[in-house]
Sequence to fold (586 residues):
Amino acid sequence: MGRTAGIWPYVCLAPALALFLLLEILPALGTSVFSLTDYTGLPNVPIHWVGLDNYTGLFAAQQTFLLRALAVTAIFSLLVTVLQNGFAVLIAWLLNSRIRGQLAVRSLIFLPVVLGATVNGLTWYVMFNPLQGPVTLLLQHFGIRANLLGAPSTALYAVIWVQIWANLGFSMMVFLAGMQSIDAEIYEAGRIDGTSPWSAFRHLTIPLLAPSITINVLLAIIGTITGFELIFVLTDGGPALASQTLGMWVFNTAFFTSVSRLPGFASAIAMVQFAIVFVIAIVMQSYLRRREAVL
Amino acid sequence: MIRQHTVDLAVPRRRATGVRFQLRSATVAAYALLAVLGLIYLIPLVFVLDVSLMSTRQFAINAASFPDPVTWSNYPTAWIKGTFNTYFVNSLIYTFAIVCGTLVISTLAAFPIARGHLRGTNAFYILFLSGILLPVGYIPQFFILQNLGLYNTQLGYILLWCSRVALPIFVLTGFIKTIPSELDDAAAIDGCPYIRYVLQIIVPLLKPALSVVGLILAIRVWNDIIGPVIFLPSKGIKPISAGLLQFFAENAADWTLIAAAILITALPLILLYVFAQRYIVAGITSGAIKG
Fold:
């Protein structure tokens, strides 16, 4: 059929290929081009080449903002990656048993993954609200007066909590799938040798889970550096830039600051962000794969 | 101790019960942990439900109480005040158009790739796969849509979503490869035209893969927030998540209405999750598990 089909296979390919090239590939590569211009996003304003001005601006004039965003991104990414995966693996371990009610809890933990950033974000906005939010009331009970999302010192950590709450289910399901693919006989063998359950977890489960750990850690790192949906819904990077990660900064600079939208400059930030993700992904990938091999 | 016991449970047969007391306390601890986990996930959702059924007065006096009297009117009020009618219909249109569009063009592209009917099939395959790894270029996308006159239009938003074919093509190509190609040869003898063959013979065989890919895509479209905020600023064409955020911004202090609006947006997702949980979980995590 292939040889006689002539032009038709290409006709079939064409719509997907055209859309993909125009609206995915071209834009993905195009960010670097826009980072060299003074693009404003306004329809009738001419665009000029400005060379590396956006980059020098970013590293010199805006250096404080850059360092701030880098620090926030680092805290956000590190805490979410470590805690989300740490909790997820322990919870998966607890739920990967015949304990009663585990299926219901499993479904419940995965639910936020389906509900999406706006519903999750606003739900916790209601929980954290400074007047009657249960979290606020609970803290008041212990004598702490706090507006968690509204105070620069706590906003980032409140967002981290919601981010972990919302995405734990995904990591947990990946770990559970990994655990279920481990042969039960391995544990039998371990028990004959007199291995305690904890050391079975530490020395059998964890090493055998290595591929799941690699993928979960990589997805969490990339997701926290590039993604900003929940931050956007909860704080929009505030207050006083306390929760503004690189991704949030790119978005706000390009589209959301009513005063001056600077997509050209935002493209330069996006390039820095991309470089960081690229380097970390390569380094982590090779590190985790090597660990997989050792374990 | 908790940890000890949970692994015991994971293993088929239990050890002789020499340490009964220890085991029992471990069981209690495991259940306690399970309950705490359940509550951490249940409380926020139940609280939103609780608030959505409260009068504004009761919320102001004591929000941590059961609604008395139960105020159902928050739902119709939020629905009308927030023009959720429009948002809901918009989201249905977007979800339907994007899921259908993406599945049709992805299947059409995946078939010649899976069968190697193209010169440089592998190059095309790798090109599409690269879409999974490349960063999203929001700013150039904005520029392109603006220059095509598609910025702030429904068509522009739909096309933007339909361009994300990387993952569907990856999944469908793998699936088509499992369909024996003898079928193709038989059809060729009958002179069945290529595109009709793909749509009439291959698509029905792809149903399981298409429904999972479509289901996951529908959830993603329903939940998209960044896309509409950038590309659909006009209120009349916003989908529901963006509409919810808009409603939140416009009624910032009206917590009972906001709670009702949150549940209006979440309800279709919760229903979908109740009825298709297995497929949803498998679909969302499959990329990572096969990874």
